[in-house]
Backbone:
């Protein structure tokens, strides 16, 4: 076989692995949208079989041989070329997949299946003790996993790398320390003026079908293409991607809380626009996908917060919204509505947190996770440690563990190392948007006209098309000329919320 034949062979094999992943994603989507309750057991078997087959196909020695043969050749190619990137990224995935014994993967999946149940019950009863033994097992298994995967400096590096390739714990800690120093006094200053913003209008009665229709209108304007995707309802909103031409989002609607569907829909559409924008040539290869969870989240948050919670966006949309809901919004104008959707309030639940306090919820989890896997904190002492940090960062104490350390699903499914990516996404979203405005000064004026094509085209050209070719820092440097930094993000928060709260 010559090099071309070998590349063809490699792509054929990788394409089959992708097909299995996508089939598994379709089943997962169905499970969360339309599958009847009693379908769970059969579905779990089907998913386990597909995942096992995909893992076997991907870790086959034949793929390893091809990758090793190509490595030398790829080193001579342009770093950014499709071929060099395919070999580089696939090899990274392959080496990692090979390092972890299948028995450990199985053990983790068995333990987390049980832990998901004990966590669900523990949260419902707000009884941490019900979840504690399973969480202890999960932490031990994650420590083992990290040791198999290997790390240079801190054990958390290995876990973080699963979600944010090439980012280190030290880098994230430095970013978070910088944020903390500025955010803590800022949140305190805002808390002094808690009454300055009234968001009661958001809790009035909003017809569900009208909310749904309004959301569809917004995301069509943003560029969500219904010939390449669809939206359905689910308990927890998510985005999933089955390949070129098929990206799905879900949303949920609350009749008495307008932001739930509205901003949830915009958020998931931000993810979907990224997935819809990979270059055709990357289809059915490991390069087709978001660069990392942090980069993916930068897209959802850019659209949800930087655009969707901006004054300019509502200059265009508020008159339309009020025409749909004349009763609920009769006493509101653009300004009062803009303030309402940007109200800052220290709260217990991360997913309900505003833009300013959100990162403090993440900091807390990042620090506790590090302490757990470095064995500086015992699982049994987690509730107390959680509450102490809530007091320190947000000035409030959760009344129970359901509103404290039991609130998130992540630990029960073994996702330690995940949380940091939410904040990295927020930080990157502003760095990207600032650059977009430098490149296209009329962008804010376009948004005020309900025109989003300019922003989407910029994102497609600079970010979306590359798929998984680059890491977050590589993308940041390519697009904005510097690595991920917090100064754009902090300037954005201080300007926006300083104005709203008169600080
Ligand atoms: Zn998201």
Residues:
């Amino acid at each position: 076989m010559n090099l071309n034949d070998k590349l063809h062979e490699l792509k054929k094999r990788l394409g089959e692995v992708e097909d299995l992943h996508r089939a598994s994603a379709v089943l997962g989507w169905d499970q969360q949208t339309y599958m009847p309750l009693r379908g769970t057991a059969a579905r779990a078997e089907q998913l386990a079989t597909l995942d096992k087959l995909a893992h076997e196909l991907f870790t086959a020695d034949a793929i390893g041989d091809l990758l090793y043969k190509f490595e030398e050749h790829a080193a001579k190619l342009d770093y950014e070329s499709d071929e060099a990137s395919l070999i580089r990224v696939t090899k990274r995935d392959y080496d990692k997949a090979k390092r972890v014994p299948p028995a450990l993967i199985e053990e983790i999946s068995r333990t987390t299946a049980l832990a998901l149940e004990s966590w669900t019950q523990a949260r419902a009863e707000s009884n941490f003790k019900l979840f504690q033994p399973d969480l202890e097992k999960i932490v031990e298994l994650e420590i083992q996993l990290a040791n198999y995967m290997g790390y240079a400096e801190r054990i958390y590096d290995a876990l973080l790398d699963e979600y944010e390739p090439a980012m280190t714990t030290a880098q994230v800690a430095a970013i978070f320390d910088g944020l903390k120093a500025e955010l803590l006094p800022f949140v305190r200053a805002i808390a002094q003026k808690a009454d300055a913003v009234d968001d009661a209008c958001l809790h009035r009665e909003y017809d569900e079908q009208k909310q749904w229709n309004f959301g569809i209108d917004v995301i069509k304007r943003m560029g969500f293409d219904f010939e390449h995707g669809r939206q359905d309802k689910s308990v927890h909103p998510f985005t999933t991607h089955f390949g070129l031409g098929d990206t799905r989002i879900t949303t949920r609607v609350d009749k008495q809380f307008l932001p739930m569907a509205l901003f949830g829909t915009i958020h998931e559409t931000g993810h979907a626009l990224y997935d819809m924008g990979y270059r055709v040539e990357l289809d059915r290869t490991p390069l087709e996908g978001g660069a990392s969870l942090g980069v993916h989240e930068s897209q959802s948050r850019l659209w949800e917060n930087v655009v969707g919670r901006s004054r300019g966006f509502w200059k265009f949309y508020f008159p339309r919204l009020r025409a749909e809901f004349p009763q609920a919004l009769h006493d509101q104008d653009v300004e009062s509505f803009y303030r309402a959707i940007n109200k800052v309030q220290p709260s217990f639940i991360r997913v309900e947190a505003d833009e300013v306090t959100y990162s403090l919820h993440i900091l807390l989890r990042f620090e506790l996770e590090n302490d757990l896997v470095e064995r500086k904190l015992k699982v049994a002492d987690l509730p107390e440690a959680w509450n102490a940090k809530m007091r320190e960062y947000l000035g409030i104490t959760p009344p129970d563990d359901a509103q404290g350390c039991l609130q998130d699903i992540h630990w029960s499914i073994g996702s330690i190392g995940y949380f940091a990516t939410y904040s990295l996404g927020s930080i990157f979203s502003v760095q990207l948007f600032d650059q977009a405005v430098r490149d296209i000064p009329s962008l804010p004026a376009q948004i005020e006209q309900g025109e989003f094509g300019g922003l989407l085209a910029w994102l497609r050209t600079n970010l979306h098309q590359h798929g998984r070719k680059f890491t977050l820092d590589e993308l940041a440097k390519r697009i904005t000329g510097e690595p991920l930094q917090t100064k754009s993000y902090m300037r954005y928060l201080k300007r926006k919320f300083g104005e709203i709260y008169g600080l």
About this structure: The mean pLDDT is 96. The longest helix spans residues 3-33. The pocket of zinc ion is lined by residues 267, 271, 297, 300 (CB under 6 Å).
